[in-house]
Amino acid sequence: MTARDLSESASRSHALQPASSPGHARILVIEDDPYAREALTLLLGYYGYDVVAASNGTDGLSLLSEATPDVVVTDWRMPGLSGLALCKALRQRHDTIPIIVVTSAEEVFAEEQPVNARLRKPLDPPLLNQVIRDELSGLLR
Prior knowledge:
With about 140 residues, the chain is of the alpha/beta class.
């Protein structure tokens, strides 16, 4: 989904409704595809989240301590640091941070992986928002 597709979808659909109260949660988006990264950034910003984005796993890990995200939304297949290596490193640094993988890679769905949620591409925006909200509410319990 490109930023243009997201904009057109938002103008045609009532399904994209801003989060009623995300509490200004910060989301770290890690996505190597620049169009998907931009679309996720715009979408999550529309839902009311503060978004920080990285183009690969290495940059995402570097941003982790500086950005202090509440949730990480990441792709699984990326050049350099793989999704699995990224998630393991995230768990070592912040073992309670929710990790949501958005991918078409089958292996993340077939195996036990160190993630909280898995969503398939093409992405369902309201579902992503609901999963993020569920993960955030789980942190408050």
